[in-house]
Amino acid sequence: MITGTTAGIGAAFAGRLAADGHNLVLVARDEKRLREQAADLHDRHGVEADVLVADLSEDDGIAAVEARLKDRTHPVDLLVNNAGFGNRARYLEVPIADELRMLKLHCEAVLRLTSAGAGTMRDRGRGGVINVASVAAFFPRGTYGASKAWVVQFTQGAAKDLARSGVRLMALCPGFVRTEFHARAGIKDTSVPSWMWLDPDRLVTAALKDFARGKSLSIPDPRYKAMSSLAKLAPRSALSSISSKVGRPPAKG
């Protein structure tokens, strides 16, 4: 099962897993795009791709996906929690309703879906969850960075708790990837240095290798691995100054 599957990292996961012969459950808000994606994956790879239309920033959407994950007659062996969004504006320039929607999607939905999926996986003695976070988790960057830091901490803690259960959990921390995610957030290519952009297919290949090795944290690029290591050593004030500028407009006032 892949959430946020119709574009970007989610689509790259779907394409790679379908190419490897896995049947899929595709989750997103846009039914038309989901059905087109499912048909394309079936035609190209001969796999079954079920469609589940759900908005994971709403309780009803989360509950629908929870119910599918708890279905023991058609079990899910791998859950990729990828759905997410970002706001380009700075703190207090973003409506509080949008901030709360982000926390609902990045934190509550990830918690509830991971719990639903991992619970049935533990009962079967096998399975895995990949929670897509971000390298923003290691930098002070408002609600987005804070929510992704929560994803990393939650996933690594849960991975340790389930270490002997046969269920593997991994937090995936990509950097800037050329997807619809940044376009929707209003982040222009020109506002981010060219060397910081990653290819989604290569990212997914590296992430799945890390997952197969049993890692609980994947930063699938040497550049971003170096940046995250430096983030642990650099003064927080310096990190905040840098991260607040990349991919954002100038501060108002």
Automatic annotation (TrEMBL):
SUPFAM superfamilies of this UniProt entry? NAD(P)-binding Rossmann-fold domains
Q: Does the keyword Oxidoreductase apply?
A: yes
Keyword Oxidoreductase part of the UniProt annotation: yes
Where does the sequence pass through the membrane?
Answer: none
Question: Pfam families in the record, alphabetically?
Answer: adh_short
Arranged from A to Z, the UniProt key words for this protein are: Oxidoreductase
Entries under InterPro entries matching the protein: NAD(P)-bd_dom_sf (IPR036291), SDR_fam (IPR002347)
Q: Which PANTHER family match?
A: DEHYDROGENASE/REDUCTASE SDR FAMILY MEMBER 7B, SHORT-CHAIN DEHYDROGENASE-RELATED
Identify its protein family.
Answer: Belongs to the short-chain dehydrogenases/reductases (SDR) family.
- The name this protein carries in UniProt is SDR family oxidoreductase
